[in-house]
Amino acid sequence: MSPGKKLKVATASLAGCFGCHMSLLDIDERLFTLLERVELDRSPLTDLKVLSACDLGLIEGGLCNAENVEVLRLFRARCKVLVAVGACAINGGLPAQRNHLDVRECLTKVYGEGSVPNDPELPLPLDQVHPISDVVRVDYFLPGCPPSAEVLWQFLTDLLDGRTPKPGAGLIAYD
Question: What is the CA radius of gyration of the chain?
């Protein structure tokens, strides 16, 4: 990223808890400083639904259904740099705990035999939850559950200042 250039940033939450987006909001008043240097594109923070070409895509959450895969591929195609944010994006996280279960059997137990929803509006579940790197190339990984506001702040300011981002010692935590 070029120092001084306003970064166009998009974010997405796939199969996860939204904790990584909460950490982004936990940057608190520094968000005003950040917004002087970035333009937010598609994100739950902006409620924009269309993704344009972006410099940076931040993805939280793993892949549990076909819609997650579609969104992820779109982000990879339109974002110069893609970042896996948090344990769910990096290794499937807590949603991957269902990987030892049979999805069809689980849905049948929840909805009853013959009552499992089958509507084209519902995304098809995958048999397993996958980290995003199983489907697309990822440029950076920000571990944590969730990564702290400090990790996100350091990562973003490093990029904005033209430095190679490296989470500092003591910033990575798993709550």
Answer: 17
SS3 32: helix
Q: What are the chain's domains? A: 7-96+128-160 (3.40.50.700)
Per-residue pLDDT at 120 exceeds 70: yes
Q: What are phi and psi of 51, to 5 degrees?
A: -100, 120
Q: In this structure, how many other beta carbons lie within 10 angstroms of the beta carbon of residue 28?
A: 9
Task: Please provide the DSSP assignment of 119-154 as one string.
Answer: -TTSPPEEEEEE-GGGTS--SEEE-SBSPPHHHHHH
Closest CA to 51 of 31, 73, 78: 78
The model carries a pTM of: 0.91
Per-residue confidence (pLDDT) for residue 63, from 0 to 100: 98
